[in-house]
From TrEMBL:
Residues 816-988 form the Gylcosyl hydrolase 115 C-terminal domain. GO terms for biological process: carbohydrate metabolic process. Residues 1-28 form the signal peptide. It comes from Polaribacter reichenbachii. The keyword Hydrolase applies. Keywords: Hydrolase, Signal. This is Gylcosyl hydrolase 115 C-terminal domain-containing protein. InterPro entries: GH115 (IPR031924), GH115_C (IPR041437), GH115_sf (IPR042301), Hex-like_dom2 (IPR029018). It holds the Pfam family GH115_C. The keyword Hydrolase applies. It comes from the Bacteria. GO terms for molecular function: hydrolase activity.
């Protein structure tokens, strides 16, 4: 009976599986054994297939050997075989097609498309085969390396030492599947600013026989690109590196790996002007006076690259990253000269390649001043790909309009996660927010930029994750429809690299690091600039308002460091070096660079108040600097036994931000006394000054449950005891007594003051709030006053405490925002209501902005709504309910992500109104490299202000309408006259019932 039931169940399950397959609800799954105790598969490729197929097969063999310690053979027929080949180029694949063993209609004729399936008894002597068929040579290579992915081999197994886990058996579960076509045709990276890492590492460590980035280094780069399903590179081009074509073998290696060579905006016709232009022999690099010599260089390059895959950058700029030199300095003359350059370049391509130039891949990059030429009417042939650029800080300057989207050559994007230039470099760490990169590239994709994506990734390290995300998006943008897809992708990445046990926590620490870096990149923490280089400036972070922004940022980084260090201890030994490179060093480096400057800011601030703690803060600043030195030295000299020596430089260009800040030192022989400093005051409490106004805390508001700090500190030398005694039981202190010591231990302590609102006498109940323009001048019936006595060495200092504790009927169960100290602060994603528009709607993007969420309207290509009547009738609107205790003219401050308009039809606009006022249009757009743009990109924030009227105290509604789609709102601050200076808007004043 049991046997009959078992047979019945087996038959039932088989029929069910067959039904599901036939109904397309489930792909047929088959097991394929590569290595086991009984099986060792082989790989069959056609020797006449492309070289890259052989290279990919050998990479797969190496991966299998690294996992299983077993070496499988290539081109030996076995009962279990991996058969890989390109349609029309492989006898094995073509034989399977002719015998109808495989169906290839979904692959044939496609760009970089491959299929993987298991075939039983495909050919004589083979019982089971894992068949990989590619539409072209790269597709076949991708397919072979897809097997490595299935074996959980990281693309970073060499570049970040992600050592594979050992397994005795390698058995794959295969679903017959088509991979491709890719979302973006050409996908790759630009090796740039290599002076500080990659070139030195190659020349001094990895490839000393060349003394440069040469064929050996490029082979490793190309292998990485294949593993990441990329196909294009813009090679390194600084003067520290000889031109790519200086080494004849480079182009051969590129062709062997099937990598397409392109070049940057400053390298026309695959020529590296930096190193190939010899002023002494060739004269001035200007086309209006020296065109024949320049064309000679173009002809030479076109001729030697004619038989290789390449994308020729057309047009011309000056040497390195400078504008083109022209005789007549007017835009019309520049445009005409550039058109002449392009005509001549296409003639050269026709002559030297013997091909129609309309079929030869070409790119035009309207970067910096060239964008102005293009906007001024430059005539560009339709078959040339328009490669749009970001503004060097992650915000794409322009995208194709509807007419440009019809161009035969299509469009692409050149994007930065590393940059050398004004207003400030970011060359050391990868401080670019991945969700911002997703948002901008998703926008580009929506505006039909699908032909070429290039990421300026600097030295590759430490840009590993961003490179993979960028290329995964380019491979299949369908996987990245929502902002949350980035976190999902990162978690999958962390799982592959470090296992499920730590993936979520790793993702969270990386997201927190991204959030802090978005608010201020670590490389910008000195408040200095470049071109020209300036000394460290004064921080905009406040130390005495809004809970002390400097200390809050220090605390965030200290938590981040602690979590990262704790995680490091839990990582498996074979992945510790990978964790160090991919997570540990980038986070510790960013945090310690922050701490170095933040503690120096605290040192200067406290030294002015005579606090002995200034010395401790100076020590902590120096300790942070030394930690960076220590970790960088470990990265270069000890990690992987010196494999990466010279790859990491903690002081690229030796800019002020990377140096040890000067600090103040307090020397005193005076006897120790107690000092006090309160939130809200730049000066300390000074009993010698009558009515100093520095001895009363800001008003506590019951509706926002305010808390404030008091610093107790040593002035002078020695130890002191202190005690704090609230005069009423409703004042709560985080600590009420302690000992301070000037020489060691604790020279200061921060005391947090809060209120037990259940014990505070209630204010009067009224329907309306009190009048008055200054929140500090609240009528006595609404304020309750008391104090805290601080006692030390027989001396008592009283600190005033005032609480605002009314009970308004209007605020009972009120679900909105409330005024606090003369302002209302709102996180834009926390709307009270939203209404969908005629063609767009508001949506939240997670992982971006100061609050880690922004709100925007989609689709990004919806039509702008600019007429006020149409805005009121058709635009999606956000509504924020708020309650004010004051009234009159107010300033509505809106903070947005500093994006640019996609093209001339658009702006970066929203419309704003309070209550029933007519909407006022606000535009965040900037132009060129204006001072406003510089501040926006340094701060990753665009702030605009509009005046509105609050006609009475009480309930109101702020309304924000879409004018242009895609504007990302981050924070809103309604200033009724009380907002003090701060870097970020104060925390939300959300009502707490």
């Amino acid at each position: 009976m049991k046997k009959t039931n078992k047979m019945f169940k087996t038959k039932y399950h088989s029929l069910l599986l067959l039904f599901l397959v036939l109904s397309n609800n489930l792909d047929a799954q088959q097991l394929f054994t590569i290595v086991s105790a009984e099986v060792k598969a082989s790989i069959l490729i056609d020797k006449k297939d492309a070289k890259v197929v052989d290279i990919a097969a050998r990479i797969l063999v190496r991966d299998i050997q690294n996992i299983s310690n077993k070496t499988i053979k290539i081109n030996t027929v076995g009962k279990f075989s991996i058969i890989a080949g390109t349609l029309g180029k492989s006898k094995w694949i073509d034989d399977l097609v002719s015998k109808q063993k495989i169906e290839v209609s979904q692959v044939q004729g496609k760009w970089e498309t491959y299929k993987i399936e298991v075939v039983d008894n495909p050919l004589k002597g083979i019982d089971k085969a894992l068949v990989i068929v590619g539409s072209d040579r790269r597709a076949t290579a991708y397919g072979l390396l897809e097997v490595s992915r299935m074996l959980n081999v990281s693309p970073w197994e060499w570049w970040a030492d992600v050592t594979p886990d050992k397994k005795e058996e390698l058995v794959l579960t295969i679903n017959s599947k088509i991979y491709g076509e890719p979302s973006v045709k050409y996908r790759g990276v630009f090796l740039n600013d290599e002076d500080w890492g990659l070139q030195r590492w190659a020349a001094l460590n990895y490839e000393p026989e060349t003394g440069d980035i040469g064929p050996k280094t490029y082979a490793k780069v190309f292998e990485l690109l294949l593993r990441l399903r990329a196909n294009t590179i813009w090679p390194a081009m600084h003067k520290s590196t000889k031109a790519f074509y200086h080494y004849p073998e480079n182009k051969v290696v590129a062709d062997n790996y099937a990598i397409v060579i392109g070049s940057s905006h400053a390298e026309p016709m695959l020529s590296n002007i930096n190193t190939e232009w010899d002023h002494e022999a060739m004269g001035e690099y200007r086309y209006d006076t020296n065109a024949e010599v320049i064309k000679k260089l173009f002809k030479k390059r076109a001729k030697e690259t004619a038989k290789y895959d390449g994308i020729y950058t057309v047009g011309m700029r000056g040497e390195h990253d400078s504008p083109m030199i022209v005789g007549e300095d007017d835009t019309d003359s520049q445009v005409k000269l550039l058109e002449r350059v392009i005509r001549d370049q296409r003639a050269i391509l026709k002559q030297e390649t013997k091909k129609d130039p309309t079929t030869t891949p070409q790119a035009f990059v309207p970067y910096k001043e060239v964008l102005n030429y293009y906007q001024s009417g430059l005539n560009l042939p339709e078959d040339i790909t328009l490669v749009w650029t970001d503004d060097n800080y992650g915000y794409i300057r322009q995208l194709s309009n509807p007419e440009e989207q019809k161009r035969k050559g299509g469009a692409g994007v050149y994007y930065h996660t590393s940059y050398w230039g004004r207003p400030h470099d970011y060359l050391w760490l990868n401080s670019s927010n991945p969700v911002l990169m997703w948002e901008e590239m998703a926008k580009a994709f929506e505006f039909k930029s699908k032909d070429l994506w290039i990421l300026n990734c600097g030295d590759i390290k430490p840009h590993e994750y961003s490179i993979e995300l960028f290329l995964d998006m380019a491979w299949n943008m369908d996987n990245f429809e929502k902002s949350t897809a980035v976190k999902t992708h990162m978690n999958t990445w962390a799982t592959r690299e470090f296992g499920t046990e730590s993936a979520t926590e790793i993702t969270n620490v990386l997201y927190e690091n991204n959030r802090l870096s978005y608010i201020r990149r670590p490389e910008f923490m000195a408040w200095s600039q470049v071109e020209p280089v300036t000394k460290a400036g004064k921080t905009e972070l406040t130390q005495f308002h809004y809970s002390d922004e400097v200390s809050a940022r220090i605390d965030s980084h200290k938590k981040l460091v602690k979590t990262t260090e704790d995680l490091y201890k839990t990582i498996r030994n074979n992945r510790k070096d990978a964790f160090y490179q991919l997570v540990y060093y980038p986070i510790i480096g960013a945090s310690k660079l922050n701490e170095k400057w933040l503690y120096s800011f605290k040192n200067k601030f406290t030294a002015k108040q005579g606090r002995v703690s200034a010395n401790t803060f100076g020590d902590l600043s120096r300790a942070a600097f030394k930690r960076i030195e220590k970790e960088t030295n470990y990265y270069n000299t000890e990690l992987q036994n010196g494999k990466w020596n010279h790859i990491m430089t903690m002081t690229p260009r030796f800019l002020p931000v990377f140096s040890q800040p000067a600090t103040s030192h307090i020397e005193t022989e005076e006897q120790a006394t107690l000092g006090l400093a309160l939130e809200g005051y730049q000066m300390e409490v000074n009993d010698k000054i009558v009515n100093s106004y520095a001895d009363v805390l800001p008003v506590f508001n019951s509706y926002t449950n305010s808390t404030y700090f008091i610093d107790v500190f040593v002035k002078g030398s020695g130890s002191i005891n202190w005690e704090a005694k609230p005069k009423v039981d409703w004042i709560k202190l985080s600590e009420s007594k302690g000992t301070l010591n000037s020489a060691s231990g604790t020279p200061e302590k921060r005391i947090w003051v809060s209120i037990d609102w259940d014990k505070v006498p209630k204010g009067e109940n009224k329907k309306e709030a009190p009048l008055g323009h200054d929140f500090q001048l609240i009528p006595p019936s609404f304020k309750v006053n008391s104090a805290i006595d601080f006692i030390s060495e027989g001396k008592t200092t009283s600190i005033g405490v005032s609480v605002y504790n009314p009970k308004f009927e209007d605020l009972k169960n009120y679900n909105g925002f409330v005024e606090d100290k003369g302002y209302v602060s709102i996180n834009a994603e926390h709307f009270t209501r939203k209404e969908k528009g005629k063609a767009a709607n508001w949506t939240v993007f997670e992982g971006l902005g100061y609050t880690n969420n922004v709100i925007t309207t989609l689709p990004r290509n919806a039509k702008p709504v600019v007429n006020i009547a149409d805005i009121l009738k058709h635009s999606p609107v956000l509504e924020y309910d708020f309650y004010s205790f004051n009234f009159g003219e107010v300033a509505v401050n809106l903070q947005a992500v500093p994006t640019h308009a996609p093209h001339a039809e658009y702006g970066v606009r929203v419309a704003v109104a309070i209550d029933n006022a007519a909407p006022v249009i606000v535009n965040f757009q900037t132009f060129g490299r204006s001072d406003i743009w510089k501040q926006n990109v340094l701060k990753n924030a665009a702030v605009q202000k509009v005046s509105q009227i609050v006609n009475k105290a009480g309930k109101h509604t702020l309304k924000v309408w879409m004018v242009d789609p895609g504007v990302m709102l981050d924070q809103i601050l309604i200033d009724l006259g009380g907002w003090k200076s701060s870097y970020a808007f104060p925390k939300e004043t959300k009502i707490i019932n």
